[in-house]
Specification:
By secondary structure, the chain is α/β, with parallel strands linked by helices. It has a 6-stranded mixed sheet with strand order 6-7-8-3-9-10. The longest helix has 16 residues. Keywords: ATP-binding, Nucleotide-binding, Transport. It comes from Anoxybacteroides rupiense.
Length: about 270
């Protein structure tokens, strides 16, 4: 079985600051991972390495069979879909584009559609819209969509290039509970279709749906725990990562947390930050 991602003793140092320290992590076929950690824990830097936009200071990295230092990184990136709320900066460019044109643009890795399209491109976009229950949005301009519809459009856009790895970086930011659950249902569909492997970054434990198999927990650039979610999502690991007294319970095969804290605990955490 070929590893989807493999990191051996990976560290990232900027100036005198250690961003990531001696990470050993492996993602294998048929695994879908969630990455947890506070802001500043190293999640973004980890993603930048996976996508080839950041080289580690030391250590070995292999992504989708591509060994860093021996591969063409732009070609690697064509096999990786990436969706983040950071893409909202392109709002003005996307505003008047139709939903299907934005989805098709994913084939060309462009913001906006400037290439000549084929009938098969339109057909594939329609299939993705059907998968995400977005048929009623055909022909609609991007700036008329709700936040949830925009997020699903961008995920469909990422899938247009048929990536082997899809990275979803806090995709639920700004969504209400109903819209978040609709988004999670769409992710269930992606996993069920076996289209690609997923890395899902979030702050919210309850977003870890049944189909997500493994969890990586980061704190201050170090791995606290990684592995099957049932083994990682325990009180001890989450309390250490989030610096609070946390207990985990499982309902309908999803984890939920309760926070037990005293005023002095929060005061101590605030002072550390």
């Amino acid at each position: 079985m070929e590893a989807i991602i493999q990191m051996n003793n990976v560290s990232l140092i900027k100036g005198n600051r250690v961003i990531l320290k001696e990470l050993n992590w492996e993602v294998n076929e048929k695994e879908h991972w969630v990455i947890l950690g506070l802001n500043g824990s190293g999640k973004t830097s980890l993603l930048n390495i996976v996508t080839g936009y950041q080289y580690p200071t030391k250590g070995e990295v292999t992504v989708l069979g591509n060994v860093f230092g021996k591969t063409n990184l732009p070609n690697l990136r064509k096999q990786i879909g990436f969706v983040s709320s950071a893409l909202d900066v392109f709002q003005s460019t996307l505003a008047s584009e139709s939903v299907e044109d934005i989805i098709i643009s994913g084939k060309f890795a462009s913001i906006g559609l400037y290439e000549k399209t084929m009938d098969e491109d339109r057909k594939q976009a329609e299939q993705l819209m059907h998968m995400f229950r977005m048929n009623h949005l055909q022909g609609k301009a991007y700036d008329t969509l709700s936040q949830g519809e925009k997020r699903k459009t961008l995920i469909a856009r990422a899938l247009m290039a048929q990536p082997k790895l899809l990275i979803l970086d806090e995709p639920s930011v700004g969504l209400d509970i109903l819209t978040r659950e609709e988004l999670l249902w769409s992710i269930k569909e992606i996993i069920a279709s076996q289209r690609c492997h997923i890395l899902y970054v979030t702050h919210y434990i309850e977003e870890i749906i049944e189909e997500m198999t493994h969890v990586l927990v980061l704190k201050e650039g170090k791995i606290i725990a990684s592995g099957k979610k049932e083994e990682v999502l325990i009180d001890q690991h989450l309390s250490e990562a989030f610096q609070l007294d946390i207990s985990v319970r499982w309902e309908n095969k999803r984890p939920w947390v309760s926070i037990h804290h005293k005023a002095e605990t929060l005061h101590s955490s605030y002072n550390k930050s």
